[in-house]
Amino acid sequence: MSDRIFSPGLTPDTVRAADGTVLSIPAGWVLLPPGDAALTRRVKGAGEHFVVAEKKGRKVFSKGVWASAEIIERIRIDLAAERSTEGHARKKEADARRREKAQSEYVTDFYGAVLAFLDFHARYAELAQRLAKAVTEHATPVGSGTVARTARIPVEQRAEAAVIAWMRHQTTAYDSMKIERVKGKRREVRRMLAQRSKDLLTQYRRGETPHSDCPLQQALQ
Q1: What is the DSSP string of the chain?
Q2: Band of the pLDDT at 1, cuts 50, 70, 90?
Q3: What are the pLDDT digits (tens) for 7-41?
């Protein structure tokens, strides 16, 4: 059962399998809540367990892992002993420096990808830099949950999607729109606004003079 994921059962002491089968929690098991990745990983590797997750809309939320209380406590004690050593502290510091370096490099690469996507005419180079900076600062923080943090698509596509998303919120009335609760309507509105944003970007790529009330320039002031 190590790779199976269950949903919460009808009662606190049960879980439901994907085929609808309801299983009772074995005696002596407790629910280890999510939050400690190392502890969870070791508990899952130590023996039988139930991984529990709940789907809400498009998102799946971890509810934790059911496993033997004895195993969980033993692993918790072992982990606490490891984490109290100087070696562990040095490793944590090294890991933090490595993450900071990787994040810094990614931010630089993403900024470059945004600039390349914008490809503004030379007369608007400074505006392109300001827009790239604004998009990058919004999209790249760790844990932001934006398209820039996904590894499923190339960075060039992430940059394009991040620009369009930023413009949707900053240069259109999307956030205050009242959109009909009809299937596909919100997607239709987003496509329409994305095309407007692309048309606006094309003007800057061609070096054309924008209207005095250009929403992009207003957003960047």
Answers
A1: -TT-EEEE-SSTTEEE-TTS-EEEPPTTEEEE-SS-HHHHHHHHHHS--EEEEEEETTEEEEEEEEEEHHHHHHHHHHHHHHHTSHHHHHHHHHHHHHHHHHHHHHHHHHHHHHHHHH---GGGHHHHHHHHHHHHHHH-STT--SGGG-SSS-HHHHHHHHHHHHHHHHSSSGGG------TTHHHHHHHHHHHHHHHHHHHHHHTPPPPTT-HHHHHH-
A2: very low
A3: 999 899 999 998 999 999 999 999 999 999 999 99
Nearest to 72 by CA among 99, 38, 103, 25: 38
CA distance 126 to 51: 51
User: Considering the entire predicted model, what is its pTM?
Assistant: 0.70
- From the CA atom positions of the chain, what is the Rg in Å? 24
Contact 115, 135 (CB under 8 A): no
Average pLDDT of the residues in 92-114? 95
Contacts of 118 (CB under 8 A, 6+ apart): 128, 131, 132, 163, 201, 204, 205
